[in-house]
Amino acid sequence: MVPRSFAALAVAAMLLLAGCGALSSSQEAPTEQPPVTESVTESTVTEAASAAPDSAASTAETTASPTETPDPDAAADVEWVEWNASLPAALPPGVNESGVDADTLLAAHGESLADTGFVVTRNTTGQSADAAQSTSGSVHARVTANRSEALLRYVTGGPDRQVYLTDDRLFVRTVRDGETRVRSGERTPNASSVPDDFRFDGDVATFVENAAHEPVGSVVRDGRTLVVLEADAEDARGLFGPEGELDGDVTALRSQVLVAPNGTVVEHRALLTVTEAGGDATTTTYRYAVETGTVTVERPAWATEE
User: Fold this and answer.
1) Sign (positive/negative) of CA torsion 101, 102, 107, 113?
2) In-domain check, residue 201
3) How far apart are CA 164 and CA 300, in angstroms?
4) Total domain count for the chain?
5) How far, CA to CA in Å, does 111 sit from each of 102, 140, 262, 267, 297?
């Protein structure tokens, strides 16, 4: 029998990893393989160049330092950004001094990424209160402006998976228990390995829609003033509220969003603790970052059709 606390942990992590339906199912790690060409090789050595995310693609490190959270012990690895209390005269779309219009902000975020290249990283970790059960997952995507090329990497509880896309072809590399499989096929609009928009921002949407964020200050990054939005457990609503569908009550919540002047959600950090009626608690942390600009994608060595 699966322990109840672990079941709740898995549900909470998977629910928010998927964005609670905010994004289409194609945003998740592809479950189908292109049914065309397949090569299978045995491997016990990880290919460093293709298995690790491109270090040049990672977002800029912040100067943040840990601050007090609803549960400092459970969230020791969350580095909240420290901000100054001033706000710019012009606020991002959907943001005003008293709150946030979630629909407007999320629409602006999507539009800001529509015609540019970007690199996005999303990480999720979950842990039961006694640390006996844990789960984690990550997505790293590097995408050109016209979406003609993309390199995606999914790390979940299952096999590690990478997807490389060209204008007309797709390649999927899966590594499980030392066995490496590479499959290739035609890139079609409805292929399960091709995300709808490549943003992987379901967690961002979930928190912005279900916690009433407010602007609390700003930080300066690369000459841009980013507005900092914050929400805590008292701001919970919808999914996170008393009538929400989570298997328990939200007993700790903190969400921090950094927004560029044009509405791009440059970074998002969050912590969520859900406590069941029996007292079992699970804490999940979230991290999202996107960097925009001119992006090139190098064809990985494994993407061949021999």
Assistant:
1) positive
2) yes
3) 8
4) 1
5) 14, 20, 9, 16, 22
